[in-house]
Amino acid sequence: MRAFLLACLMVACSRAESGDIERGRALVADRTQSLCLLCHALTAAGDPNHGNLAPPLDAAAARLSAPALRERIADMRRFNPATVMPPFRSTDGLRDVAPAWAGRPALTEQQLDDLVAYLGTLSK
Fold this sequence. Notes:
This protein is mainly alpha-helical.
């Protein structure tokens, strides 16, 4: 079991390293796809054009490892069933989904890797 968990962690770490920082930056800024800035600010200093409902993204990136950050973006419901954060890599249990998005996750695996790569730069 320990070997299995270690292998999973290594895969998750290598996935985060495969992300593209610039694509991630563009994705965070894209309010039509990632929606990050509707609820989050990039930094604790905030920005009037960013959300203030959720923790700043630099704080989340500083507090969480890349694999943990990736898991939360993929489906925060696993950590907080009452979250309002959309599950970006899951379609399970969703309702009232627009027909164009029915059965489709909001982000691809590559986009998730790109987001994590970019968010990792915010904590430095």
